[in-house]
TrEMBL record:
Range of the intact protein held here: 246 to 611 of 611
Gene assigned in the entry: glmS
Location of the SIS domain: 43-182, 215-356
Name of this protein: Glutamine--fructose-6-phosphate aminotransferase [isomerizing]
Entry annotated with the keyword Transferase: yes
Catalytic activity entry: D-fructose 6-phosphate + L-glutamine = D-glucosamine 6-phosphate + L-glutamate
Length: 366
């Protein structure tokens, strides 16, 4: 069942080149340079004319929503809001006709997300579901949708569902951007080519798992952890922190790296590991100075870096290396080392990584 792996979590992390290929199958066609997403195409005018897009989700799915906000605003120039489903459902949100609500959920059964959908639907919004579990309640409640096709996820901590969500959301943004002509034909072709390479690049990161295990040994006794990233990698910092918390019970916080100086930097001393998601992108120089700020205060720095990066390698205590990827798709690759690191730290601490205490796979109560 676990396919020779010690835990479902590890199996599911290693499933990702395959689950992402499944997610792209029948959609991305590199021969004809086409992207097929029936659920979007059938309602293209709803998307291209949307006044705004509201994304609702919880936990890891909410983090995927944050990445999607950056993707959709960049490629489609449609304003996007990302909300915790639990907050959206209880406040009195301004939502109605002309709004598109994207609900993201692995299980398709999360109670808060379900009720948020019902509320927006009653108010006249168009509901699009990005769901993993086929035939689930959220899939049924939505007007349209796109399945993530990641396969069953058994580990309580979400891993392969997250990367499949990012893939579907990227495909949506690319497709809508092309329709709206807010991206050029050349950009469209480049994104398709980049998408096609993702499963191989994820595989390349998985091949480094032994070296990530070594990194884990240095930090398994940490009491706290800070995860920092900017731009597309900011939600990856949040996701990295959530995963570590769930799996290792180490207190971890994620922040946009620039927010550090507005408070969290007070925590930094020689005992605090700070994990930077620092792949090559438009924010690279900025993140380098953030790393210097931590080193100047004797913090321990672990960095997820792009292949060939010698600058950060020279500054950090430990690095985890990933292939270069266009920044829009970077989270798909940069999240992988954080999943593996959490897994090994949890195992080193002797914990039940597949079923962390107090957590359930799907939260069907509010
Ligand atoms: O099934 P959903 O995607 O709606 O679940 C949302 C969250 O409950 C879920 O992502 C949770 O945060 C996971 N334990 C994260 O690993």
């Amino acid at each position: 069942e676990k396919g020779g792996f010690d835990h479902f979590m590890l199996k599911e992390i290693f499933d990702q080149p395959g689950s992402l290929t499944d997610c792209l199958r029948g959609r991305l066609d590199m021969e004809n340079l086409t992207l097929t997403l029936a659920g979007v195409e059938e309602h293209m005018s709803v998307f291209s004319q949307a006044k705004r897009i509201i994304i609702v989700a919880c936990g890891t799915s909410w983090h995927a929503g944050l990445v999607a906000e950056y993707m959709i605003e960049t490629l489609c120039r449609i304003p996007v809001e990302v909300e915790y489903a639990s907050e959206f459902r209880y406040r009195n949100p301004v939502v109605g006709e002309g709004d598109v609500l994207i609900a993201i959920s692995q299980s398709g059964e999360t109670a808060d997300t379900l009720v948020a959908i019902e509320k927006a639907k009653e108010a006249g919004a168009f509901i699009f579901g990005v769901v993993n579990a086929v035939g689930s309640s959220i899939a049924r409640l939505s007007h349209s949708g796109a399945y993530t096709h990641a396969g069953p996820e058994i580990g309580v901590a979400s891993t392969k569902a997250f990367t499949a969500q990012l893939t579907v959301l990227a495909m949506m943004a690319i497709k809508i951007g092309r329709e709206k002509k807010t991206i050029t034909e050349a950009e469209y072709n480049r994104y398709l080519a980049e998408l096609a390479l993702i499963p191989e690049k994820v595989k390349a990161v998985l091949e480094t798992h032994e070296s990530i295990k070594e990194v884990a040994k240095h930090y398994a006794d940490a009491r706290d952890f800070l995860f920092l990233g900017r731009g597309y990698n900011f939600p990856v910092a949040l996701e990295g922190a959530l995963k570590l918390k769930e799996i290792s019970y180490i207190h971890a916080e994620g922040y946009p790296a620039a927010e550090m100086k507005h408070g969290p930097i007070a925590l930094v001393d020689e005992n605090l590991p700070v994990l930077f998601i620092a792949t090559k992108d438009a924010y690279y120089e900025k993140i380098v100075s953030n790393i210097q700020e931590i080193k100047a205060r004797k913090g321990m720095v672990i960095a997820v870096i792009s292949e060939g990066d010698t600058l950060i390698r020279g500054m950090a205590d430990h690095v985890m290396v990933v292939p270069e990827v266009d920044e829009l798709l970077a989270p798909l690759v940069s999240v992988i080392p954080t999943q593996i690191l959490s897994y090994y730290i949890g195992v080193l601490r002797g914990l039940d990584v597949d079923k962390p205490r107090n957590l359930a796979k799907s939260v069907t109560v509010e």
